[in-house]
Specification:
Elements (H helix, E strand, L loop, with lengths): L14 E7 L11 H15 L5 E5 L2 H12 L8 E5 L7 H4 L2 E4 L5 E7 L2 H4 L4 H4 L1 H7 L7 E8 L6 E2 L4 E5 H7 L5 H12 L3 E5 L17 E4 L3 E5 L9 H13 L9 E5 L6 E2 L2 E2 L8 E3 L2 E6 L5 H11 L4 E6 L1 H4 L10 E4 L4
Parallel strand pairs: 1-2, 2-3, 5-6, 8-9, 11-12, 16-17
Antiparallel strand pairs: 1-18, 4-5, 7-8, 10-11, 13-14, 15-16
Length: about 350
């Protein structure tokens, strides 16, 4: 049972840093490493405008390479810290810590089992990443709690006030033997939440996470939900995302009020070697004072950034070129994990 004083903060609450792992030739990025590194460089420059960035690297050679790349940009190198650890891939939203905190300065690194998205990919080193970061002293005196139940950070959204949003499509794939009630109980107990809201609809072709919530719908302050819509009736996603929007309209806050919904525009299909890629604008990253928004070189990029800015008033909106990321079926939020203020 989780300490009852702890909770899962909302992403828009104050942060200590953002955590990433740099792509290298022994990850799945090898075939297009130069292109994807350009996105990581842009991300590093954007994050360090606002707060610190912790970069996991596979060794000293990669660390020197990353430094040489960042020195040629406007990244704030004084805000960057490197940690050397082995890793299989760079999707730290899913292999990084889900951090609970209380109103004091007490933290719990909740370390769920990472299975490579239901056994699709090897994940032994990624599953050990949180323990490695703890051993490296990154998180000070924070408690480390291992939970032997498969869950990825991209599979849940928190409003910071006791509500978790997730998708049935993802969690039933991870735990086909468990009922929705059983999974809701595990989520409530492990994240010290009061309730779990489930979406039955919503997916993106080319997404191998089995419909992670962070590609579909995101909590925003003041009872808002930003979600990926599709306005092209000829698109294969149209009916499914329309139904998801209808589901979201039926959800209620803890005090019984409807959420204010912000539908995002739909990028034109991006096809790579005959394969449709999952270009979601909902996969944005919140940092202190800003929202970093994926850009795909599509006419809808600017409208998506405008709408996300409306949902997070008072924050700077920064577009980050993410087209190279979706080749590997994820985007900006998927490669990052925010760390709550005071943790590092």
């Amino acid at each position: 049972m989780t300490d009852s004083t702890l909770r899962l903060p909302a992403e828009w609450e104050p942060q200590a840093a953002v955590l990433i792992a740099w792509p290298h030739a022994d990850t799945d990025w090898a075939e297009r490493l130069e292109a994807v590194e350009s996105t990581y460089v842009a991300l590093a420059a954007a994050v360090t405008r606002f707060q610190p960035l912790i970069i996991v690297v596979a060794g000293e050679t990669l660390r020197a390479h990353v430094m040489s790349q960042l020195q040629a940009t406007n990244a704030d190198l004084s805000r960057i810290r490197f940690v050397e650890l082995p890793y299989d891939d760079t999707w730290l939203r899913d292999s990084g810590p889900i951090t609970l905190r209380n109103n004091g300065n007490r933290f719990q690194l909740t370390d769920f089992r990472f299975t490579g998205w239901g056994g699709k990919f090897g994940a032994e080193q990624d599953d050990a990443l949180i323990a490695g970061l703890v051993d490296a002293g990154v998180f000070g005196s924070a408690a480390h709690k291992r939970i032997d139940w498969a869950l990825e950070g991209g599979g849940i959204e928190s409003d910071g006030d006791g509500t978790i949003l997730t998708t049935w499509r993802c969690l039933v794939q991870r735990h086909p033997e468990q009922s929705r009630d059983e999974m809701s109980t595990i989520l409530r107990d492990s994240l010290n939440a009061q309730r779990v809201l489930w979406l039955d609809y919503g997916y993106l072709e080319g997404d191998d996470t089995d419909a992670h919530i962070d590609t579909l719908a995101r909590f925003a302050p003041d009872h808002r939900i930003v979600y990926q819509a599709c306005d092209d009736a000829s698109d294969v996603h149209y009916d499914e995302l329309k139904r998801m929007g209808e589901e979201l309209a039926t959800l209620r806050t803890a005090d019984g009020k409807p959420y204010t919904l912000y539908p995002l525009p739909w990028a034109k299909p991006i096809v790579d070697e005959g394969r449709r890629l999952a270009a979601s604008y909902a996969n944005y990253l919140i940092v202190n004072g800003a929202v970093l928004v994926p850009a795909y070189g599509d006419a809808a990029d600017d409208e998506a950034a405008r709408i996300i800015g409306e949902a997070y008033p008072g924050r700077t909106v920064v577009q980050v070129p993410c087209r190279p990321l979706i080749w590997q079926n994820g985007s900006l939020h998927c490669i990052t994990m925010q760390l709550p203020a005071g943790l590092v």
